[in-house]
């Protein structure tokens, strides 16, 4: 274990040489700092890289801690707050006399109705399953409608929409014209969804992030930088 010092703060990091790494890279998972680099890289070069990035490392660790405070682990119980299209809704659960659970969205709450024959010890599992199904169904509907709209006005044809649950990507576009969109973005404001869809559609014309690509995005979403930043800054809260 190595250490880098920032003022009076010492941050531990793990050195991880790899035959697959093409460059020096820092990753932070569960407050653990990991530095991967091509095997055979000079150790002083790696340490220098970490030294150059120490302010970013500290800020990221602090941001992660703040996010954990703001977004505690969900228990899928009444009173918890969930996001949908950028708005906060309180979760409400209610036992009722039917065989199957169902979910209902009202002005201020997401209601999950639990069959009376379900043991209380299984309520949390059932509520999570119902929320997950509902969010994915909503994502399919909302994304599809927006794709139809923007593909027409942009004059671009896509092949197929696929709803994904990628851990590190919000969307992607394949060479076959298939668009993959992360269902969790349905929790974000609609402007964010619009930006993401325009972004992926633009890849049908430019399979890169060239100046021409961003000009095309800006044509249909002039304030895209604002929503791109929102997604970068707030992506961590888009969780179930």
How would you describe this protein?
The longest helix is centred in the middle third of the chain and has 32 residues. Helix 3 crosses helix 4, helix 4 crosses helix 5 and helix 4 crosses helix 6. The protein is built from 6 helices and 11 strands. Helices cover 39% and strands 27% of the residues. A 4-stranded mixed sheet has the order 1-2-4-3, covered by helices on one side. By secondary structure, it is an alpha/beta fold. The chain folds into 3 domains: 69 residues, no CATH class; 51 residues, no CATH class; 102 residues, Metalloproteases ("zincins"), catalytic domain (Zincin-like). It starts with a strand and ends in a 6-residue tail after the last helix. The protein is globular, with a radius of gyration of 22 Å.
Enumerate the spans where pLDDT stays under 50 for 5 or more consecutive residues. Answer: none
Mean pLDDT: 88
What structural class results from the helix and strand content? Answer: alpha/beta
What would the principal axes of the Cα set say about the shape?
Answer: globular
Major β-sheet strand ordering: 1-2-4-3
Q: What are the main properties of this structure?
A:
240 residues, alpha/beta, Zincin-like, 3 domains, four-stranded mixed sheet, 6 helices, 11 strands, globular
Task: Provide a compact summary of the structure.
The chain has helices at 43-52, 54-70, 123-154, 190-202, 211-220, 224-234, and strands spanning 2-6, 9-18, 25-29, 32-38, 81-84, 87-96, 102-105, 109-115, 160-164, 171-173, 178-182.
């Amino acid at each position: 274990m190595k250490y880098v010092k920032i003022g009076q703060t010492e941050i531990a990091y793990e050195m991880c040489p790899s035959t697959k790494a093409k460059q020096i890279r820092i990753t932070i998972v569960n407050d653990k700092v990991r530095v991967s680099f091509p095997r055979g890289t000079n150790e002083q070069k790696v340490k220098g890289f970490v030294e150059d990035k120490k302010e970013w490392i500290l800020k990221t660790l602090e941001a992660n801690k703040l996010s954990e405070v703001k977004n505690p682990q969900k228990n899928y119980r009444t009173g918890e707050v969930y996001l949908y299209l950028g708005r906060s809704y309180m979760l409400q659960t209610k036992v009722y006399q039917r065989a199957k659970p169902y979910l209902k969205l009202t002005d201020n709450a997401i209601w999950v109705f639990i069959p009376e024959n379900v043991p209380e010890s299984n309520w949390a599992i059932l509520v999570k399953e119902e929320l997950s199904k509902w969010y994915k169904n909503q994502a399919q509907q909302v994304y599809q409608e927006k794709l139809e709209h923007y593909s027409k006005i942009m004059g671009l044809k896509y092949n197929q929409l696929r709803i994904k649950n990628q851990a590190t990507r919000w969307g992607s576009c394949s060479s076959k014209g298939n668009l993959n969109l992360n269902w969790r973005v349905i929790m974000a404001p609609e402007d964010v969804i619009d930006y993401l869809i325009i972004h992926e559609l633009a890849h049908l014309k430019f399979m890169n992030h060239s100046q021409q690509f961003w000009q095309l995005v800006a044509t249909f979403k002039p304030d895209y930088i604002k929503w791109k930043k929102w997604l970068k800054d707030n992506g961590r809260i888009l969780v179930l």
